[in-house]
Design goal:
With 157 residues, the protein is of the alpha/beta class. It has helices at residues 3-7, 39-50, 79-92, 142-156; strands at 11-13, 16-18, 23-24, 55-62, 96-102.
């Protein structure tokens, strides 16, 4: 099998079978009013599948216990109906999709508006790259880490 034919041949990863090995990386769009993806994301991601992406990884989606910028889609509650429409649209074009699960607490600036009330905190509380200053939040308390892990597990299921 040549390299070119391998790229366009189906592949199975665990229980997921993809029509080809072309994967669209996540790109932040922030076009989901109130965190609920509507027709714009469904059309956008379906076009990517129609264009040949076998797997479309969505933009970052916020978990129930994290905060995100305005317009970032949620992956919980009412937003799940919107994601169901995205999945149906992508599948109708022959592609597969999965969400990027996003926790932005450690990279947002303290005092900025967020979609959910939460403090600036990161899983470890470590400073980011030098361009980030001051340090972004204290370490999450063990109970908060557990809530984040639980939300991630729930979304993954």
């Amino acid at each position: 099998m040549t390299t070119k034919s391998s790229l366009f041949s189906p592949v199975t990863i665990g229980t997921l079978t993809l029509p080809n090995r072309i994967v669209m990386a996540p790109m932040t769009r922030q076009l989901s009013p109130n965190g609920v993806p509507g027709t714009d994301p469904a059309t956008y991601y379906a076009r990517r599948a129609r264009g040949g992406a076998g797997l479309v990884i969505t933009e970052g989606t916020t978990l129930a216990s994290s905060a995100g910028p305005e317009g970032a889609p949620h992956f919980h509650g009412a937003a799940l109906e919107g994601w169901a429409a995205v999945v149906q649209a992508v599948h109708a074009e022959g592609g597969r999709t999965l969400p990027q699960l996003w926790h932005v607490g450690a990279v947002r600036e303290p005092g900025t508006e967020v979609s959910l009330p939460t403090s600036t905190a990161g899983p470890s509380g470590l400073d980011g790259p030098p361009r980030w200053s001051p340090p972004y939040g204290p370490p999450l308390a063990p109970t908060a880490r557990g809530r984040c892990q639980g939300a991630t597990t729930t979304c993954a299921e």
